[in-house]
Design a protein that fits this description.
By secondary structure, the protein is of the alpha+beta class. The chain has two domains: about 60 residues, TTHA1013/TTHA0281-like, CATH 3.30.2390; about 60 residues, no CATH class. It is about 60% helix and about 20% strand. It is built from five helices and four strands. The longest helix has about 40 residues.
Length: about 130
């Protein structure tokens, strides 16, 4: 599968201008990045053929001002940290559900009460059959 870098830049009117790097004359525009991506794929299909363009992988290079790029990066890093913490919290909750229901012998409802989740979630996590 071919891989193409597509550069997106906003013009003065707020439209996204998309250009496929390395393929002369393949560019398009759109009101949204998704719209510009779809249109530039159509333009690419005229240059390399429909089937090849449909299978082509796009690597998006969205040009943003430095201050905007910085806040987007901060949000991305924060979401990645959240995903990590959330994953650890889920693992800890599953371990606690198992200990409470299997080792300590609590009902799924009591375990749910202690962990602050639904009894259905305890059943899923612990595989409890009570």
């Amino acid at each position: 599968m071919a891989k193409y870098v597509v550069t997106y830049e906003r013009d003065e009117g707020g439209w996204w201008i998309a250009e496929v790097q390395g393929v002369a004359g393949v560019n398009s525009d759109g009101r949204t990045v998704a719209d510009a991506r779809r249109r530039v794929r159509e333009a690419l299909s005229l240059a390399i053929g429909d089937a090849a363009a449909d299978r082509a992988e796009f690597v998006d290079d969205i040009k943003l001002p430095a201050d905007v790029r910085r806040v987007v990066k901060q949000a991305t890093v924060a979401r990645a940290r959240l995903d990590d913490v959330q994953s650890k919290a889920m693992a800890a909750t599953a371990a606690a559900a198992n200990v409470l229901t299997r080792k300590f012998g609590l009902s799924v409802r009591d375990a749910a009460e202690m962990l602050g989740v639904s009894h259905q979630r305890i059943q899923q996590l612990a595989g409890a059959k009570r």
